[in-house]
Design brief:
It holds the Pfam family Trypsin_2. Helices cover 13% and strands 28% of the residues. The protein is of the alpha+beta class. The longest helix is centred in the N-terminal third of the chain and has 14 residues.
């Protein structure tokens, strides 16, 4: 849901035209969505964070997803939702994006690494992607991002996280919500925060200098603006990062994604 339906259709159309550390223990998850019984906090505008940026598809100037910079000594790597990348569609990441300050040059997604479960059948439990990015000149991404974010395990319920992302569109800046994680649903970590809208797919859940989740997973991150999910970070994600750092063959993403929200 966090990548707008219109964008998903555009991704499919462009693709056709081109032809081309274990997580913390959890209690037993509820079998159905927990109703939000009180007014959740709302996302609000914040100053740009160089560790977080917007993802643009092709060159239309519209940012459609969000991503974060990973701490790595050997490569410029970013983390986003797997459903934000598609076969045959060029993407660019702009760290610390905001139309209120000079734009940082974008970095092209050169290689995308995906979990085998996502490649096989777009399993929402593996709705994360690590990409190697580059630009023609300029400093390393970690220099701009003050080192980037470390990968951490899935948060236990009650963990304070800050979700930072970009609403779908042209221009603007980041918004964020700081909230305690809720009980997971079907094994997917959850947060209750209003205003996490289309375009937030891939937005990191930050605890200190660690990323412990991202908007994605169940229903593409959630079918309601006030309830959002993350794929559960477990040992598969550090293994994926190791593969990305080694610079081996990249994966070819699927061409389409259906979040099931209707």
């Amino acid at each position: 849901m966090r990548a707008p339906a219109s964008v998903r259709l555009a991704v499919v159309a462009v693709a056709a035209a081109v032809l081309t550390s274990c997580g913390a223990a959890y209690p037993a998850p509820p079998q159905a969505a927990e109703p939000v019984t009180s007014t959740p906090p709302s996302a609000h505008p914040v100053s740009p964070d160089s560790r977080v940026g917007a993802v643009f598809l092709d060159t239309d100037g519209i940012h459609v997803c969000s991503a974060s910079v990973l701490s790595s000594a050997v490569a410029d790597l970013i983390l986003t939702a797997a459903h934000c990348v598609a076969d045959g569609v060029d993407a660019t990441f702009v760290p610390g994006y905001s139309d209120s300050r000079p734009a940082e040059p974008g970095r092209h997604l050169d290689a995308v690494y995906l979990d085998p479960r996502w490649l096989r059948d777009q399993d929402p439990a593996a709705d994360y992607a690590i990409a190697r990015v580059s630009r023609g000149d300029g400093p390393a991404l970690q220099t701009i991002a003050v080192g980037g974010l470390r990968l951490g395990p899935a948060p236990a319920p009650g963990t304070a996280v800050t979700v930072v992302g970009y609403g779908y569109g042209v221009g603007g800046g980041p918004t964020a919500c700081t909230v305690a994680t809720a009980a997971p649903r079907e094994g997917f970590p959850a947060v209750h925060c209003d205003g996490i809208v289309a375009g937030f797919s891939g937005a990191p859940w930050i605890a200190g200098s660690t990323v412990v989740g991202l908007i994605g997973g169940l229903d593409g991150g959630g079918c309601l603006d006030e309830v959002s999910y993350s794929p559960r970070f477990d040992g598969a994600l550090p293994a994926l990062m190791a593969r990305a750092e080694a610079g081996g063959p990249a994966d070819t993403p699927p061409a389409a994604f259906d979040d099931g929200c209707g």
